[in-house]
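We give this protein:

***
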Amino acid sequence: MEEACLLDEAFTAVCRKFGIAALRREQRTCIEAVTRGEDVFGSFPTGFGKSLIYQALPTVAETLRRKRDPIVVVISPLKALICDQIEWLRSKEVPAAAIGVSNADDDLIQEGKMQLVYGSPEKFLSNDKWSSFLHLPHIRENVIAVVADEVHTVIEWGCSTDKAKSAFRPWCGRVGEIRALLGKVPLLALTATVPLKFRAKLILQLGMPACKQIISSPDRENVRTVVRRVDGDIEHVFAPLIDALRAKRHNCPRVVVYCKSTDTCSLLFTLFQSRLGDHGYHEDKSERLVENRLFAMFHSISAEATKANILLSLKNAEGTIRVIFATTALGLGVDIKGLYTVIHYGPPCSIEEYQQELGRAGRDGKPSVSILLWNRSLGRHVRSEMDQFLLQSSQQCHRKLMLAHFLEKNVAVSKVCGTHDCCDICAADCICGDCPLYWGTSIVNVSSLVRDDVVNCWTASKKEVLASELREYVFEIEGHEGIQFLPEYVIHQLVENAKNFCHPRDIPSFVDIPRNACIDAIFSLLTRVLEQTHI
């Protein structure tokens, strides 16, 4: 009873310190388990408040009188995330610092004066100074928890599925060793996106087989999803967004456009620059300076100063930058203010990446929209589960497809499934009478961005060209002399079902294709015709 009262007192102190009304039930459960010395694996949706769980631990330990100088060691793979959190914690007068950033901070860390000590897996494990730090008696005595944040990167970045290739960041795969260096200290592992099939593997790799698992659905109920095929004319696809930015300037709702490559980021940046001219700059600022431009691009090879300036603008809902073209470099842990529309120009590599990136929108809980635009060319180089999602997304609820990737079947459902608040598939079947409201809440009208003339890639003229080229396709049959042409009924099947082909292996499902016809060659022909913009 006394313990429960002390915990309530501790939670009240946390709310007072961080300026919140109350902790979520799952946050309290995680904190209680860690204070009991249990390992905890927590999976919660983006924008849930995962970081508050471990940021609250020193305050809780002090209130429970467990430690006078409590320390939480936080392992995070992301420099930008670390910097943001430290800045915020210091604004709340919480002693926090990252290892290896400044001599002054390093001295305070070594003395045990910082309550939250941040660092990357590489810095803690590959640097003798900081691995030795974990052995210091006064540090070991006061560390109350080790936190592995964004823990899905242990497998995604720290392990390689291809024996011929090394992992992207191999030290990420050894995060569990940091807890081992500290001895018997609880490990708190947190993420938003771990596929169900990898969860057990990840828990074992972290060395926490008996951990308490607290799993919430990764579903972002306030984010509607739209998936549409588009043609290969990038200017055609983005004309509505260019028009919106030209008309509204700094009043244009903020939009992030995720691209599959730095080249595509550059292409879109150049397109907007050429089409907008003076209209691409803040109208209240006379000079055409970089800091006055309404759009920007953010990727791994952007200069650090450029990244810092962009992130500074994105932290302010009224910041100058209204449209940002980005790769996955603008990803985990970035809190973009006033963002209610995320566009993917081409599908992300994986369902996890897709869930993370659409979760950048509406982190304050306001209605938002995620729009995935794709075609065969953009749909290359994705994992099998994303390939399947693309195949099924034209007929099945997007949310159900995604949740099945993360949760057991009996809980892979959302209360918004089947309503116009869910996805464009559910919206098409909704009969509530308020459905038109669905299409008016995004940047530019969603129906404008994915208008029929863009979505319907297979125009009559393209079908005619396709049929003509298919009639010229020839192949050989072993044991028979001469070449063979495709039968007219096969050509008809190919033309009428072209919209259903995302991969060569889809063709036999819709077409009675001759056994010796090369489906890869036919698929390449289909793709070439589809992406001809002059037809």
